[in-house]
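User: Before I run my own analysis I want an independent prediction to cross-check against. Here's the chain; please return only the structure tokens and, at the end, one sentence I can use as a sanity check.
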Amino acid sequence: MNRPKGASVERRTAAGVLIAGTLATLIATSIFWKLTDRRAEDTRRIESIADGLTKTLAGGASPQAVLSAVVDSGSVAGAVLYDANGSPVARAGTSKNATSEVVCRSVASGTLCVEPLPSRPPRLDAILAAAGGGIALTIIATFVITAMLRQKLRDVRRDVEHAVADPSFAQRIDPVNGELAPLVETINKVLDQIRNREAELRRRTHDLEFANKDLESFAHTISHDLRGPLGSVLGFAESLRDGEGSQLNDDGRESVRWILESANTMRDLIDGLLQMSRLSREEMERGNVDLSAIAKGIAYSLQKNKPERDVDFHIAENVVAHGDERLLRAVMENLLTNAWKFTGKREHARIEFGRLHENGHSTFYVRDNGAGFDPAHAAKMFRPFQRLHSSKEFEGTGIGLATVQRILQRHGGRVWAEGEPDRGATIYFMTETP
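Assistant: Structure tokens:
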């Protein structure tokens, strides 16, 4: 699992606080025990001196001379020799025999008491206060370092946000020292790569837009240039059929029929190309479009043109989409006309238009019980001039669904199809992709 760099720095800083505090406590404890051991050593030294004086006095030496010599040597602060009744026999230096630090020994029929040199015994509260102060200073220093690290992280994050917000990706993060230096260097390299790729993407987008405009212009020009000669072919063929038809034999009349049929197919192709080119260039005016009303109008026109057909239309009420009304009307005309065409061989045809709701978004559909198609070829349906059925089975140019896809792409939506052979088809579309 990858962890943010800033979190790692802060965790290690917190660990430093713990380690520093632990070390300070250990040092304070060590000092306390060292001072305690020194005090015990002083006690043992006084006891040794007292034992030595006891032996000297037991040997018959002059008490006053011995005690004075020991005090004068600076080994002890004072010494007193008491008789059996507790009266002083000899004394040298100061005497504080009421304290627990005085060491006493029995000598013949008396008692020798030796007072150690004055010392400053270690105080536990002072040691703990010093240790606590050290720990406090360590914690304060650590918090200062942590604050500095956090500020550095905030500065880097701010620079990254500014660099990413720049559409040109020209800004870079100022170099830093320490642990963040490799991170900053890596981010700057990534920004360089993004800028280079962004420039390449803009170049390719510009080239693609230019190529698309050229292609649309070419298709529009060619279509217009073909309409004139094609109109002449249709006119002469119709004149030949109507005026000279009686003088032609069967082969001649069949040839004229094929000329007219092929010319009409070419005219339909040209009209489809012109429509697709026009719909791809027209400005869009978005608004709420009543698809139910459009579908009902198209269904009425289809049934009026061929009243002999038994087609049951099921159109959902109040289906509204957001988009350009002219373009969405072209979508509905293409889809419903396709459904009408591919149900032409059904004795009882059914065409349905409705809407599905998923995650707050609307998906529209046109469903029929017509010829259907092989699902393996679903993607081909939306390519220009691609047909899944021969012209002998169903007439058409293969441009209608390509036009539908182009319109929905302009809306930011998409279109897809589901179906099975001889079991109908459903075309789904969205005017806006979630």
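Sanity check: Residues 90 and 284 are 125 Å apart (CA to CA).
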